[in-house]
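Note on ligand handling. Small-molecule inputs were canonicalized before submission; formal charges were left as drawn, and no protonation-state enumeration was performed. Where a ligand contained multiple stereocentres, the stereochemistry in the source SMILES was retained. For zinc ion, this procedure yielded the string shown in the input block below.
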Amino acid sequence: MKIFFLKTTLFLMFLTLFSCETKKQKAEPKAYKAGVILSFDDAYVDEWAEADAALKKYGWKATFNVCRIDSIGAPEIKKLLQMQKEGHEIAGHGYHHYNALKFVKQNGIDAYMKQEIDPMIVSMKKKSFKVTSFAYPYGERSDELDKALSKKFKIIRGRAFGGEAPEKQDSYFNNSKIVFAFDIDNSHIHFSIPYVLELLDYAKKNNKILLLCGHKPVRNVTENYQTKIETLEFICKYMKENNLKFYTLSDLDNLLPEN
Ligand SMILES: [Zn+2]
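Structure output:
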């Protein structure tokens, strides 16, 4: 009996030691619920607020990546603050909306940070926006830029440009702070409802977080950079019926493996 007890204790100690060891060696990705990040770029505040009114019934949460913060009028700033209060994220999209790659090529990364990033953070913070994520204008990025911006932001979003099969799409969260979104504007060459449905199904079946982006939500499309509210309704309805979670960009920070 005593020997048996001793053996069991030793075995348990061994197990404990072993499990501590594996934890130390490898940061396990955290488990999370399948979901979607709906993000919108530029400064279409009035249309974002209209979309918010239409989609509130789904309990939706979105991320609005704002550029040219100092050109936005007081009533629109008020709307953005209200949306932040309701759980949407207000994130950065550049002080001037420069193409980061082109600007850095011509002026260097220090000038980029000084002219495009630092004044944006200062002004947004002054206006009470908790800016912790950034989306590249035109999705134009580089490893050098990712590295510099990593010091300022928790999550950095680019664009996934292709229309490949879902398992090859870059627009799913991949346990990295650099993420890519698929564009659901009506004018986007790879956009279609059946394809978005494929992307949503893949997220659901494989427990993934799908990242989507758009610009100006509208009822009727009249030009480029417009997302149909009908498209957004379709996505929200699917999410509700299939129990998918609404994430914001900065929510991903909590899901990153700890270093
Ligand atoms: Zn933009």
